[in-house]
């Protein structure tokens, strides 16, 4: 009963999602979109091929680019069991939104966040402002990987799970909802990822 209560799942997710504010139009020269996932069913239209996590990230990146069309969009990530490269599906989606191919770069040789960040810091000059687009709950982990490279991108979080405040809410918000478990599952995944990241960094530090 508790794990299907929206306020509880939102409370657990809040420290992750509220760690960085939404993008506020800062001037950037690069927009990095971390990869997520896509589907390859032939009956799906292009708008349904990116999974919701990728869809939200691509839309956020497109909005930033349309406000700053001199910026370059960097797409990263690879999925081993997909016939079509993940960044290729993302590129097609951005092209359909009116973004020219000349403004898009693909970085395909990474299968996790750490690998994506490593590729991006090599490709993007440190003195050129960068907006980092990823899911809000994923942003703390991604920013920490950038920090290890002495980089401090401007966060552009998206795909928020928490979509309401509870200051004046009444008892119906405590009515069990199955979709609350989605938020709980995502929060668990990110907390586990942060723990794994902390262990990995600690072990590397001790070995140096």
Note down, in words, how this protein is organized.
The protein is α/β, with parallel strands linked by helices and 208 residues long. The chain folds into two domains: 141 residues, Rossmann fold (3-Layer(aba) Sandwich), CATH 3.40.50.620; 32 residues. It is built from six helices and five strands, in the order H-E-H-E-H-E-H-E-H-E-H. It has a five-stranded parallel sheet with strand order 3-2-1-4-5, with helices on both faces. Helix 4 crosses helix 5. 35% of the residues are buried. The mean pLDDT is 92.
- The count of domains is 2
- Known CATH architecture of the largest domain: 3-Layer(aba) Sandwich
The overall strand count is 5
CATH topology of the largest domain: Rossmann fold
Helix coverage percent: 40-55%
Overall structural class, as computed from helix and strand content, comes to alpha/beta
Brief rundown of the structure:
This protein has 208 residues and is an alpha/beta fold. It is built from six helices and five strands.
Question: What keywords describe this structure?
Answer:
single chain, 208 residues, Rossmann fold, 2 domains, 42% helix
Topology at a glance:
Elements: H1 6-17, E1 30-33, H2 52-67, E2 72-76, H3 86-96, E3 104-107, H4 113-123, E4 130-135, H5 139-148, E5 154-158, H6 180-207
Parallel strand pairs: 1-2, 1-4, 2-3, 4-5
Helix pairs in contact: 1-6, 4-5
């Amino acid at each position: 009963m508790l794990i299907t209560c929206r306020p509880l799942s939102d409370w657990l997710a809040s420290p992750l999602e509220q760690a960085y504010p939404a993008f506020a139009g800062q001037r950037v020269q690069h927009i990095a979109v971390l990869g997520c996932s896509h589907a390859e069913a032939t009956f799906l239209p292009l708008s349904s091929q990116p999974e919701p996590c990728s869809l939200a990230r691509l839309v956020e990146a497109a909005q930033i680019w349309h406000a700053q069309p001199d910026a370059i969009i960097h797409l990263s990530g690879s999925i081993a069991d997909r016939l079509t490269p993940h960044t290729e599906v993302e590129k097609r989606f951005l092209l359909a939104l009116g973004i020219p191919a000349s403004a898009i770069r693909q970085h395909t040789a990474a299968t996790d966040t750490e690998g994506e960040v490593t590729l991006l810091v090599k490709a993007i000059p440190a003195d050129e402002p960068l907006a980092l687009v990823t899911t809000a709950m994923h942003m703390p982990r991604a920013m920490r990987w950038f920090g290890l490279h002495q980089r401090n991108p401007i966060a552009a979080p998206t795909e928020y799970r928490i979509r309401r405040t509870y200051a004046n809410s009444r008892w119906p918000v405590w009515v069990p909802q199955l979709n609350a478990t989605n938020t709980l599952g995502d929060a668990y995944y990110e907390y586990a990822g942060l723990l794994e990241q902390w262990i990995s960094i600690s072990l590397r530090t001790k070995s140096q």
